[in-house]
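Quick one: structure tokens for this chain, please?
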Amino acid sequence: MHDLAVVGGGPGGYVAAIRAAQLGLKTILIEKEPTLGGVCLNWGCIPSKSLLRNAEVLRLVNDLQRFGISVADVRADYGIAVDRSRAVVDRTTKGVAFLMRKNGIEVRRARAALRSEQVLRCDDGGDDVHAQQIILATGARARSLPGVQVDGTRILTSREMLEVREIPRRAVIIGGGAIGCEFAYVLAAYGAAVTVVELLPHLLPQEDEEVSRELERAFERQRIAFRTGVAVAGVETGDRGAMVHLEGGEGLECDLLLLAVGVQPNVEDMGLEDAGIGVGRQGIVVDGQMRTSMPGVYAIGDCVGPPLLAHVASAEGVVAVEAAAGREPEALDHVQMPRCTYCLPQVASVGYTEAQARERGVDVKVGKFPFSASARAHAAGDATGFVKVVVDGAAGTILGTHMIGPEVTELLPEMVMGPALGVTAEQFERFVHAHPTLSEAVKHAAMAAVGLAIDI
């Protein structure tokens, strides 16, 4: 009998297993895929960020003349970029396997389903797994559109896109969220004519509207086309590609169609219904400590629904294990989870947007600092975008931070910790930031919200 069984070896499951081992629990991790790490490490976050880095380098090389450097006959081999991304994946997943061995965690390669609250049936022909408590971390998979068949050559999801080795001449991406915008940037950097189609009024529709508008302007400068506020009426395929029909009559012809329309939780064939575990439209229903409706069974990560982020799954894994160990951990505030998009310019945010804060009836104050006023940004050659801080005017506390610009995904940590510690915008005046750095923009934006801006 194990103390804990974890089903799923992604960033939620393997982190949960490690924390359990740290707490002295005899733990088994069950994963159906040949490598650990889940979609994130194998077919999501890690390989896509490797490709994005290649795209950044290519953009920089093509812009070297601005820095007084001349290079002739620049050639970009996208197949080699894909090879590099797979090498990064291989190194990372081997690192996770090492952590399992280091922490004494048993790993079993199988698909598991619940037989009871303490028993899991595995499809590898071996014995059932018996555990005092169970954590389900089965993740999610890419959605398609009704009537659209993913064939892996002309019509793809992000999973298949990560194995494409040749850049298409024309690409259409349905979905203007983080995945759609990131792949749009990669494909355009390598020379594809890209059009992004988004049902909602703006690209990155979950971000602050000012950030979304700034990204749209940046995409226009990069000649990435987009259609927002429009639905897809249908898709036709032919020998050479696909035709995307939009409501209103416009047709978009392409050699490659990428579906980036979200994911659906992996909750089928797991015995959840027979076990009486509640499943809603977004996934398995849990409470603040990740408990399902069956005692002793927890669920974490994408299989429980938004926010669908690897670091959220990891944090939920820690909460679930500590709850299983009787520690009564504090529930996560999912609003204050950091969010990143790694196209150019990068987008990073945490907390409430300005519109969301106003909807809550808060006396909102807003501070902004443009990177055009940052000496460090100009020295680095990219002064696009801004930092925007949303503040509770009465309490002075920070409700949200929204950034677009150079390396902003690296500027989030203090804006995650600050609200958690009750830091006010006015207190930022006492927090000395090194000069010249991009991080100064965060301080200046916070101070601007309370009328204390100096450098803008």
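The mean pLDDT is 96.
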